[in-house]
Design a protein that fits this description.
By secondary structure, the chain is α+β, with helices and mostly antiparallel strands. Helix content is 20%, strand content 31%. The strands form 2 sheets. A 5-stranded mixed β-sheet has the order 1-7-6-3-4, with no helix packed on it. The chain is globular, with a radius of gyration of 13 Å. The protein starts with 6 loop residues before the first strand and ends in a 7-residue tail after the last strand.
Length: 81
């Protein structure tokens, strides 16, 4: 899967940590699984292996795990009126 084929995942904040994103996107079941696969070098952020579960991710970043690639997008909030 290329970056262009990445599945969008919308977040409400300007930042999400890698471990949280993996759980939020249902790529792992819990924090222990996230910690293990990150430590083993199975997770790539923007094409580079990432070993920090607390890595800060922002809209535009891509995360790959196995065959899954996701792109972080900022959730559009309704206009205040």
């Amino acid at each position: 899967m290329t970056t262009q084929d990445a599945q969008p995942v919308e977040i409400r904040e300007d930042m999400i940590r890698l471990g949280q994103l993996l759980k939020f996107a249902s790529l792992v079941e819990d924090g222990a699984e996230a910690r293990e696969i990150i430590a083993e070098g199975h997770v790539f952020v923007n094409g580079e292996p990432e070993f920090q579960r607390g890595k800060q991710l922002h809209p535009g970043d891509t995360v790959a795990l196995g065959e899954a690639t996701i792109r972080i997008e900022r959730e559009d909030s309704p206009a205040a009126g």
